[in-house]
Amino acid sequence: MPLPYQVWTEEQIDNRGIVPEGNYPFEVTGASLQKTKGKNGKPVHDMLVIDMNIIDTHGQIRKIRDWIVFVENMDWKLRHLANTTLLLDHYEAGTLEGYHLLGKKGVLVLGLKEEDGKKMNSVKDYVKQEVKIGLPASFVDDDIPM
Question: Is the pLDDT of residue 132 over 60?
Fold first, then answer.
């Protein structure tokens, strides 16, 4: 009697942890200010490391991490993160801190990138509030279960 296994291709094995590209609801589970590594003579910069849970297309909770580096032309994504988590007022006032993000929910744009020949997910952007639901922020129900 044959063993009860699934036949896997090498491509399926390589892609088994990959979530398809698309927009996903998320909840921030961690946010900390850290330093970049500064490898290969690159300067060291401050960055925000954001840990999040998303729900994938199969209803499974997945952990995702994003890095926003605070250097010219790289920290634009923070505005979209603040917008989707309803923290735009803090952002625009210059008072946004990592702890403000904890437990906040929003929608992210998940993409794929290849690094060292291996595919992996990456956060391409965050869906701005006006675009996300097509209604003013006052109509948002923040009690959506994750």
Answer: no
